[in-house]
Amino acid sequence: xxxxxxxxxxxxxxxxxxxxxxxxxxxxxxxxxxxxxxxxxxxxxxxxxxxxxxxxxxxxxxxxxxxxxxxxxxxxxxxxxxxxxxxxxxxxxxxxxxxxxxxxxxxxxxxxxxxxxxxxxxxxxxxxxxxxxxxxxxxxxxxxxxxxxxxxxxxxxxxx
Length: 160
Hints:
Layout: H1 6-13, H2 19-31, H3 33-51, H4 62-75, H5 81-111, H6 123-130, H7 140-159
Helix pairs in contact: 1-3, 1-7, 2-3
């Protein structure tokens, strides 16, 4: 067996592996000092993070934030005539859009050019082409391991 992946070492430290996977990796760790050392580091880190305590005796800041929001809202009252300006900007944008479409259509029509159909693609194909990935594992360990796998794959792609 080759070396155990970082993802599986992290999952072993978090006790997120099936019994079969756990036994197979533990058997490898008995014979591989390098993987055993990496596993011990992950287990020690998990122990430290497990003991981490968040301060909960901090004062509640929401009343002060709420008061500042109330003060801000009362200070930003606008006169009624600004509504007409907003409506005028929306109307101008509509007229500009329609006019641009009309002129563009006339120019294409004068040149005899036909509009070409745009091929339909799914959102998944677009995201995949852009290099975006969906992360579907629910645990924090799953998120870390997914990001770790993606960066390893990207580094392997850069090296080739």
